[in-house]
Every structure is written in C-alpha cells, then in structure tokens.
Design brief:
With 112 residues, this protein is of the alpha+beta class. It is built from three helices and six strands; from the N terminus they run ααββαββββ.
C-alpha cells in the first residue's frame, strides 16, 4: 500500500508474482508483472490517484504457501470524460502465494 501512495510503480509491481493477473472491471485483463507495472504507472500519472484497502478477511492455507485477502477498495482518480475527480468503492479479492525467495506475492488481483 505504501508503494502505491508513494507513487512508486516499480515497488508496487514487485508485490505481484511474475505470472500474476489483475482484473479491474471495464479494463483489459493485465497478465504478468510487466503489464501490471505499466498499468500501475498509468494510474500513478494521475495527480488525483489515491488507493485504500480495507481488509475484511485474511486466511492462510494450512500449507502456509497460499493465502487470500478480501475487502473494500476505495479509488480516487480523474475521470477522463469530465476531468472531474471521482471516488469509487468496490470489493477486492487477492490470492497470494509464498515464494521461498521473495515472500508473499499476489498471483490474482480481482476487483468487483
């Protein structure tokens, strides 16, 4: 979260596994860390961009190598059609996998 709010797309993208995907309604499916990084960079180019997660649940598998988190997502951005700042709320589901070298990484990021 800190990397998003600090405007650091590279650090934000490192939270994603190389084979991760991100689904945001109304956008193309982003697959792989490079596409995800490019998409994060586009968001961060908007001076009104802000992101906040409110976690409702976090479960870790007994194997301790998979986990999921779900909750509420709040995003502010500049609407390209009106140039007005919009704030929307939606729900999210993150599936994370523990990498032995890099720790927990997001493999599926779904907003709905």
């Amino acid at each position: 979260m800190q990397s998003y709010n600090a405007g650091d797309a590279e650090a934000a993208a490192r939270h994603y596994a190389p084979d991760a995907f991100v689904f945001i309604p109304g956008q193309e499916l982003r697959t792989g860390r490079d596409e995800i990084r490019a998409n994060i960079s586009r968001f961060m180019a908007d001076p009104n961009f802000a992101l906040a997660y409110e976690n409702e649940r976090l479960d870790v598998a007994a194997s301790n190598d998979l986990a999921y988190s779900r909750g509420l997502l709040t995003v502010s951005y500049t609407d390209p059609a009106t140039d007005a700042v919009r704030t929307i709320q939606s729900h999210y589901l993150l599936v994370m996998r523990r990498d032995p070298n890099d720790g927990w990484q997001v493999v599926q990021d779904i907003s709905f």
